[in-house]
Amino acid sequence: MTTRLTQQFAFLQEIDKLKGILRATAINDGSRPENSGEHSWHIAMYAMVLADQAGSEVDITRVIKMLLIHDIVEIDAGDAPIHSQFDTADQDAKEQRAADRIFNLLPEDQSKEFRALWDEFEAAITPDAIFGKAIDRVQPLLLNLANDGSSWKQYDVRLAQIDSRIGEKVNKGAPWVWAYIREKIKPWFAARGLD
After folding, report:
1. Start and end of every HD domain (predicted)?
2. CA distance 195 to 186
3. In the chain, at which end, N or C, are there fewer CB atoms within 10 A of the end residue's CB?
4. Global pTM value
5. Cα–Cα distance between 41 and 44 in angstroms, integer?
């Protein structure tokens, strides 16, 4: 048991580093960037609150687990903002190495479980992962709307980019949520001639 606890606490101490990974999106009041630890907690809450928007085949408990661990790899790989330019293959390789290292800090049974959940989320083909990916994309939209589009301005984002890079995923996993959110963000882009 001592070895198991040592491994579990090593993992828990390591993931504290997620709080130091800054994201492109600012928090609601625009005063500072959100960190990845805050993001993971916030979207887990989104999933819990929006569970009624998931399909009947979605297991919200599994989705919450996925959302809590999905960005842990950013400790080693860093955040790759969706509207930035980066080498996708290189980022994927960094994230795979990070997943190997970080999840292997855990005892073998938990390492396998967490890694399987992370891989499932990344593949986004199961109902749980599809809904989780949708929720992961929703929260930054609302943060941007609340803080006058801070990262949209930074990356010169147009509504068409939102539709193609985000909307398709959200619509696939939570169509009513996407319809609602799109109506909320559309005026921001229209007012700036970015629609």
Report:
1. 15-178
2. 7
3. N
4. 0.95
5. 5
Q: Is the dihedral of CA 54, 58, 62, 67 positive or negative?
A: negative
What does DSSP assign to residue 59? Answer: -
Q: Is the pLDDT of residue 130 over 80?
A: yes
> What domains, with CATH codes, occur in the chain?
2-191 (1.10.3210.10)
Q: Is the pLDDT of residue 195 over 90?
A: no
User: Mean pLDDT over residues 151-178, rounded?
Assistant: 96
Backbone angles phi, psi at 79, to 5 degrees: -85, 140
Looking at every residue in the chain, the average pLDDT score rounds to 96
CA nearest to 83, candidates 34, 2, 154: 154
Q: Are 128 and 120 in contact (CB under 8 A)?
A: yes
Q: How far apart are CA 119 and CA 181, in angstroms?
A: 28
Please tell me whether residue 155 adopts helix, strand or coil conformation: coil
CA distance 80 to 70: 13
Whether the predicted pLDDT of 1 surpasses 90: no
C-alpha Rg value of the chain to the nearest Å:
17
